[in-house]
Description:
Helix content: 10-25%
Order of helices and strands: EEEEEEEEEEEEHH
Shape: globular
Oligomer: single chain
Structural class: mainly beta
Number of helices: 2
Amino acid sequence: MSxxxxxxxxxxxxxxxxxxxxxxxxxxxHYVPNAQDxxxxxxxxxxxxxxxxxxxxYRRVVDGNTLANVYCINCRILLGWELIxxxxxxxxxxxxxxxxxxKQIMYLSGVTLHDSLFGGAxxxxxxxxDGVMNRITMKMDVRQ
Length: 144
C-alpha cells in the first residue's frame, strides 16, 4: 500500500531513518502527518532504536505538557521528544506519542519528512530580481 505526501509516493512498509547515521527509527505506518501543525508536522505512535533518558535534565515543559528528549541510539543526535505527561489530554496530545524533528529524519529515498510535508530543497524561490544590476551596467556604459 502507498500514499502521496506532497509530490512523493511513499510505501507504507518503508522505514524512516535518522538523517545522520541512517539507523531505522520507525515505520512509515506509525507516522501521522499533520501539515497544520507547523512546529512538529504530525506525530509518531511508535519509534525504535532510540534512547529516552530517564533523567529530569532531559525533559522540558511546554504549554503544561512534559516532553522527554529522544535520541538516536547509534549517533545520539536529538531526534525529537516523547510526550510523557499531558496537562489537558486531547486527541492530538496523548501520553506516549512522539513528536520528532522532521528535518532530522528521512525516508529511504533520502527525502526528509520536513521537505516532503512542507516542501524544501527541491523548490526554488521566485525570481526577485529588481533590475538593479541592469541600471548599474547602463551607468557604466555611459561613463565610458
